[in-house]
Specification:
By secondary structure, this protein is α/β, with parallel strands linked by helices. The protein has 2 domains: 2-108 and 204-241, D-Maltodextrin-Binding Protein, domain 2; 111-198, D-Maltodextrin-Binding Protein, domain 2 (3-Layer(aba) Sandwich), CATH 3.40.190. It is built from 9 helices and 15 strands. It has helices at 2-21, 48-60, 74-79, 94-97, 139-146, 158-166, 177-187, 215-230, 233-241; strands at 24-29, 32-33, 37-39, 45-46, 63-68, 85-86, 100-102, 107-109, 111-116, 131-135, 151-155, 172-176, 192-198, 204-206, 209-211. Helix 2 (48-60) crosses helix 8 (215-230). The longest helix has 20 residues, at 2-21.
């Protein structure tokens, strides 16, 4: 009887361990934000945040599943339960914390001002009367709207703003600095440049957004984030996706 009981306990332990390992967390991703989240030539969702979550999942015992979702409506989808969390370079703000919970920060950013290479612009103040583009609902777009004398132009995807800047339809773009570097230093390196860093008045951190009260998902994410940082995996990923 004792042997049978021990075998039963072992079997239950294996089953529970398997179930824990198979815990899935579905993340909404607006995959238009390279190098953080984007779709590669093989139609796969890739980027720094994607690799970060895969590593965090190994450390904390969950499997991330990524669902490409447009930025417009991504927060409403979280509130209605269409997915468990958002991994889309979401800045942690006091206003957003009223509507959703956030994981511990996993990346710190600044806002960058991108202009054409031959431009003499050095700040938003130099752009009075000019059209300046940003992705709607982002910190960069809020900075444009808050600046005096500019004409804000919103885009559903930051890549569309960069295209318009490259052909001269707008005079500048404001977005997160790793994204700015991807476009200005890689994709449009011959025509665009980063002119300045825009001060938003506070440290801006990315966090994974979770539906209010979902402590199970939040605890798993925070456990994974802590382990990834403790092991220096985040630094390896920065080197891979963003460089020095």
């Amino acid at each position: 009887m004792l042997k049978k009981a021990l075998l039963t306990l072992v079997a239950l332990s294996v089953l529970c361990g398997s179930a824990w390992a198979e815990t899935k967390i579905v993340f909404a991703v607006d995959a238009t934000w390279p190098p953080m989240e984007f779709v590669n030539s093989q139609k796969e969702i890739v980027g720094f945040a994607i690799d970060f979550l895969k590593a965090a999942g190994k450390e904390a015992g969950f499997t991330p599943v990524f669902k490409n979702t447009s930025w417009d409506g991504i927060f409403a989808g979280l509130a209605s339960g269409k997915y468990d969390a958002i991994s889309s370079s979401v800045s942690i703000t006091e206003a957003r914390k009223k509507a959703m919970d956030f994981s511990a920060p996993y990346f710190t950013v600044q806002q960058a001002l991108i202009v054409n290479k031959d431009s003499s612009v050095r700040s938003l103040a130099d752009l009075k009367g000019k059209k300046v583009g940003g992705q709607i609902g982002t910190t960069g777009y809020f900075a444009i709207k808050a600046a005096e004398g500019l004409t804000p132009k919103s885009y559903d995807e930051i890549g569309l703003a960069m295209e318009d800047l490259n052909v001269g339809r707008i005079s500048a773009v404001v977005c997160d600095d790793p994204v700015a570097a991807n476009y200005a230093l890689i994709k449009y390196k011959d025509t665009l440049k980063i002119a300045a860093v825009i001060k938003t008045g506070e440290v801006e951190n990315y966090g994974f957004a979770v539906k209010k009260g979902n402590s199970k998902v939040l605890d798993l994410l925070n456990k994974g984030i802590a382990a990834v940082k403790a092991k220096g995996i985040d630094l390896e990923l920065k080197k891979k996706w963003i460089g020095q």
